[in-house]
Specification:
Layout (H helix, E strand, L loop, with lengths): L10 E6 L5 H12 L7 E6 L7 H8 L4 E4 L6 H5 L6 E4 L9 H10 L3 E7 L11 H5 L4 E4 L2 E2 L8 E2 L1 E6 L2 E2 L14 E6 L10
Parallel strand pairs: 1-5, 1-6, 2-3, 2-4, 4-5
Antiparallel strand pairs: 7-8, 9-10, 9-11
Bound molecules: zinc ion.
């Protein structure tokens, strides 16, 4: 095994706000790994991830190595792990329920290299799902940032701005809300991140 790319039993996290290139980073990782001989990897994303973007085409390209899992039942992941697996990659990790921490810990103990990507903070700037807890298990945390989308600003963004009909969402809104017609997201810097006090 090539230990520059595969580090058995360790967890690596790519996190940051919306539009900070997290998925691109992990797909880039897969691109490199494809050239390693005898490296078996599995790419998992949660059911809730409905993005029509490039990830769908990548998913069909690598069909055999991709699975979709119910985010409310992370234990499903354990049944997908084959004995010869070297690398497990999970995207949109923030959507998985609490048990994801135990599941990943179990997988790490078997010597598999685990790479996850996701939002570290929610629309209100609070830790998203189990991502903060997973950071305590990680050997490497890659913090990514984007560019603030607030008009006239181009600072580094570290927050995800939820807008409802163009206005900042209220602080008591639910944590998970997929982008839709009235509900949009922007990558914002700390100065331009707004949450409505309710
Ligand atoms: Zn800004």
């Amino acid at each position: 095994m090539n230990y520059n790319h595969i580090k058995p039993g360790t967890l690596e996290i790519y996190c940051g706000p919306m539009k900070s290139g997290k998925t691109r980073e992990i797909l880039h990782k897969i691109d490199k790994i494809k050239y390693l001989e005898n490296c078996n990897f599995l790419f998992i994303k949660p059911n809730i991830d409905t993005r029509e973007s490039f990830i769908k085409s990548r998913f069909s390209e690598m069909k055999e190595q991709c699975e979709t899992v119910d985010e409310n039942n992370p234990n499903q992941i354990l049944s997908l792990i084959k004995s010869n697996l070297d690398l497990l990659i999970i995207d949109e990790i923030q959507f998985f329920s609490e048990e994801i921490v135990k599941v990943i810990e179990k997988i790490l103990k078997t010597g598999i290299h685990v790479v996850v990507a996701g939002l570290d903070t929610d629309f209100a700037g609070k830790g998203f799902g189990q991502v903060p807890q997973l950071m305590t298990l990680a050997t490497h945390v890659h913090k990514l940032s984007g560019i603030c989308e607030y008009s006239g600003c181009s600072n580094s963004s570290i927050r995800s701005q939820r807008l409802i009909d163009g206005k900042p969402a209220g602080k008591n809104d639910k944590q998970v809300s997929i982008e839709g017609q009235n509900n949009t997201y922007e990558s914002r810097c700390l100065v331009h991140h707004e949450v409505e006090e309710e």
